[in-house]
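Renewal narrative, Specific Aim 1. Our central claim is that a sequence can be written position by position from structural information alone. The example that follows is taken directly from our test logs and has not been curated for this report. It begins with the structure tokens describing the chain, in the order in which they were read.
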């Protein structure tokens, strides 16, 4: 049993209370994007109704309010992930932009031909393609730690692959395609012994589990607001101050400079050095409101409740004839990726939608994972703390219906 009042929580999410194709909506596509509570929607509209102006520039009152709210959001995020300093919190468009920033500003200036970047076979394309672009730019080598049949990153192979040419370890904290929670602590420990910096793709971890960047000991941590109840087009790069200080800016423009002349430009301090142009002010404010909401419930309680949901869903879905769960790691976030014998995942998704059930089907931007399991795609149900066992039952019933229609 759980201490969460799910009925009360659900009342905070207006979007959940609607019918889709004549059936009450069951939203199980949270790994792609979560929904927003009223408090986030209201924080964003309150900002636009009362406080909006450009930040960092004006002496007038509205600009001051907008700046305070924007920089206040940075402090909320710092506290949420336990970074030492707000200088270490860089706003980006999302996880994707955060990884690209590290590739272009940390790796590109210093990496030599033959230098190695180590990733895993579990990665989202956002933690693969930026390194491939870098490979073209500097002649770096991309090495991939294999995964097991359970969908776990192979630690023994990792220890063999890390070596004197390794310049960066870039790992998913939680896999979006399978839900695997990667035991990043032990990978980081070995990386540190080799003096290798570590980037974590936290897009799927941060909405579901407490994250403490100092306890983890990572050098970079990337995440997206829209997967953790916040606005889209907003994300965060956490970077250790010493590393960020040494990195050149990656985009030029207003706000990231101290002075500009045609001969010489001096750059602003951290974190603004990395925030060229007018930022997504409302996005930062909405993300801070999302964090307030998550903290009111408590990340520990969210993780515990979602784990119960995962166990329930795993058991219930396993009893659907012909259903095979892909990714059976011992430690998983509340994601169930599966196939249904003889039915293409895309058709599963289409029939489920007629039953009001929203899941994701496809390769989940992790095509190498699909290739490893020798399947084109999976159907993926991904849960949040506002989901219920009744909704899992609705999913299972809709899958049984799908088998009758298409099987
Ligand atoms: N990494 C992982 C593990 C993800 O799940 C996602 C989003 N699907 C991303 C990176 C990319 O996030 P965004 O599209 O918000 O930049």
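The sequence written for that structure reads:
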């Amino acid at each position: 049993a759980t201490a969460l009042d799910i009925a009360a929580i659900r009342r905070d999410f207006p979007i959940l209370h609607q019918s889709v194709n004549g059936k009450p909506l069951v939203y199980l596509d949270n790994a792609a994007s979560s929904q927003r509570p009223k408090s986030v929607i209201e924080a964003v509209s309150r900002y636009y109704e009362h406080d909006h102006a450009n930040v960092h520039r004006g002496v007038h009152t509205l600009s001051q309010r907008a700046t305070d709210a924007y920089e206040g959001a940075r402090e909320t995020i710092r506290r949420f992930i336990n970074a030492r300093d707000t200088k270490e919190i860089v706003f980006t468009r999302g996880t994707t932009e955060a990884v690209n920033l590290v590739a272009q500003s940390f790796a590109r200036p210093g990496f030599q031909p033959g230098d190695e970047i180590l990733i895993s076979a579990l990665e989202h394309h956002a933690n693969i393609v930026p390194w491939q672009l870098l490979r073209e730019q500097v002649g770096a080598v991309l090495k991939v730690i294999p995964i097991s049949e359970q969908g776990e990153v192979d630690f023994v192979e990792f220890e063999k692959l890390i070596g004197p040419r390794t310049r960066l370890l870039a790992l998913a904290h939680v896999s979006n395609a399978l839900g695997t929670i990667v035991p990043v602590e032990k990978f980081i420990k070995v990386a540190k012994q080799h003096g290798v910096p570590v980037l974590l793709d936290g897009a799927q971890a941060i909405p579901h589990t407490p994250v403490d960047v100092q306890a983890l000991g990572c050098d970079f941590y990337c995440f997206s607001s829209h997967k953790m109840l916040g606005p889209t087009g907003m994300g965060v790069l956490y970077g250790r101050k010493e590393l960020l200080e040494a990195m050149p800016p990656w985009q030029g423009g207003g706000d990231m400079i101290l002075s500009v002349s045609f001969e010489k430009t001096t750059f602003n301090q951290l974190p603004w050095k990395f925030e060229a142009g007018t930022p997504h002010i409302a996005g930062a404010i909405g993300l801070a409101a999302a964090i307030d909401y998550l903290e009111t419930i408590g990340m520990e309680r969210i993780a515990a409740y979602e784990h119960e949901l995962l166990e329930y869903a795993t058991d219930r879905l396993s009893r659907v004839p012909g259903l095979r769960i892909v990714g059976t790691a011992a430690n998983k976030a509340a994601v169930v990726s599966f196939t249904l014998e003889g039915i293409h995942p895309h058709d599963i998704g289409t029939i489920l939608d007629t039953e009001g059930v929203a899941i994701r089907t496809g390769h989940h931007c992790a095509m190498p994972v699909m290739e490893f399991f020798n399947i084109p795609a999976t159907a993926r149900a991904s849960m949040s703390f506002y989901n219920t066992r009744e909704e899992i039952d609705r999913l299972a019933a809709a899958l049984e219906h799908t088998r009758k229609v298409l099987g």
